[in-house]
Amino acid sequence: MKNKREEDEMGSEGSGSVLKRQRVDEQSSASGIGNPLVPYNDVDDEDEDFERGKTNNGGEVEGSNTQVVAAENGEDEEEEEDVYGQGDSLERRKSQFEPREDCPYLDTVNRQVLDFDFEKFCSVSLSNLNVYACLVCGKYYQGRGKKSHAYTHSLEAGHHVYINLRTEKVFCLPDGYEIIDPSLDDIRHVLNPRFTRDQVGQIDKNRQWSRALDGSDYLPGMVGLNNIKETDFVNVTIQSLMRVTPLRNFFLIPENYQHCKSPLVQRFGELMRKIWHARNFKGQVSPHEFLQAVMKVSKKRFRIGQQSDPVEFMAWLLNTLHANLRTSKKNNSIIYECFQGELEVIKESPNKAITEKKQNADDQNSDQRITDGGTKHDIFTETSRMQFLMLGLDLPPPPLFKDVMEKNIIPQVPLFNILKKFDGDTVTEVVRPRVARMKYRVTRLPRYLILHMQRFKKNNFFIEKNPTLVNFPVKNLELKDFIPLPMPKENERLRSKYDLIANIVHDGKPNEGLYRVFVQRKSEELWYEMQDLHVSETLPQMVALSEAYVQIYEQQQ
């Protein structure tokens, strides 16, 4: 009898352990929430929930185990059904993590402090994995498991509403359930602005102003950019490129470049969408994330805190964007479609062999004369075709002497005069890399023509700035009257008329000056002056009175 009794007890313990393991497995599978988030370094959300499931139910499992033993001893046979049905525990666990629409903490969300323009890094661990923004204070924290920084913040500060910066899901912590509420959609739109193709097509027809949370009005696409520290050269470049319609439309729809993993391309697209978004919480945008990508990709050639040349930055940006966006089969991209033109270059340089013979003869003080068929053989002529994204124009040198009033005369030159550099006949003297005479002729005009006036020249001691004013038309720049253009193909019309859409200006001394830009708003054909955060309407006549440095012209269609 004793052996029988021991076997029964062992059997009951064995069945109890099996039931305990079965229950834990079932609860862990029931409590495992499909989590698409990037794992948190310390404790993953799923693992934490699983651990919580085990610890919460450990006492109940043991309790049910004793109940089973008791039932086998004949004490309470009805309790055994609760073990297999698992009672209200699973229902409670299920309801705890089911999405809810009636979160009591939604009224604590403070939209005034939300700013998604900065890098998505945890403010404690500085990690970019699984980052959440607290919608009460605006700070970024990592994870939502029990040992995570967001969970700790929710307990310490009493802030309970958090949005995942990657998936845009909103959660209530420390409870852990997802909040489903349409009133949070405006926050999602600010976090990740989105446009449909129909909305993109209507942007240039929209004349409506938008209102920020502080009550100020702003025009989508005409918002100021924050100057973080001597980054005005970036701001004027971005504001100018925003006026190029095909480029803007391309980057407003992320599906156009989703194949590209370059951080520069992604951040440029995000910045473009934020500038043109009509539902922003504030009337300005900070290009902080874009600048971080620029510093990384350019290997700190362009960086925060160091003034740079917008011509160099624009050339680098366009070439880098093209290199990242081009397809493997064709060397083409939206950058080349907008800005690429073609030049015919005739290069006349001294024949190397003849030059060396002459130099040797001079060195030896020889009276022997070298005659090799006249001067034609002394010059080597080379003709080539080259693509360009922008054209550099040479300004005439400023006067050396002051006038009678002891003031320097600021010279003026028509744009057409300096455009003659590309008529195919004007000779340009080049010293580097070798002495040569160059002639340029435009063989194909781009859809958007970028001109830059070479105002700055470096010598051995300092940088000189040429203050010459360039007189240019704001509308109807007719190139065919001043430079010879190729004949169009059959059934094609020669498009040689251009309208100005952006004009970058430099004010002040070469090393200490500031950059500002004049841009045109197409929906109303009004001109705006933009300098970092300051945006003001101006007259077209004022655009032509400035020291133009970079100009973007749009081809009339």
What's the shape?
A: elongated
Average pLDDT level: 79
- The stretches of 5 or more residues where confidence is low (pLDDT under 50) are 1-5, 17-92, 366-375
Strand content: 15-25%
* Oligomeric state: single chain
Give the count of helical stretches: 16
Overall structural class, as computed from helix and strand content, comes to: alpha+beta
What proportion of the residues is helical, as a percent range?
A: 25-40%
- The rounded Rg comes to 35 Å
The major beta sheet can be summarized as:
8 strands, mixed
N-to-C span: 105 Å
Q: List how many beta strands DSSP finds.
A: 25
Domain USP: 223-556
Family: Belongs to the peptidase C19 family.
GO biological process, one term: protein deubiquitination
GO cellular component, one term: spliceosomal complex
Folded structure, characterized:
It is a single chain. With 557 residues, the chain is an alpha+beta fold. Helices cover 32% and strands 21% of the residues. The protein contains 16 helices and 25 strands. Strands 12, 16, 20, 21, 22, 23, 24 and 25 form an 8-stranded mixed beta sheet that branches. Helix 8 (232-241) packs across helix 12 (310-325) and helix 10 (263-276) packs antiparallel against helix 11 (288-297). The longest helix has 30 residues, at 2-31. The radius of gyration is 35 Å and the shape is elongated.
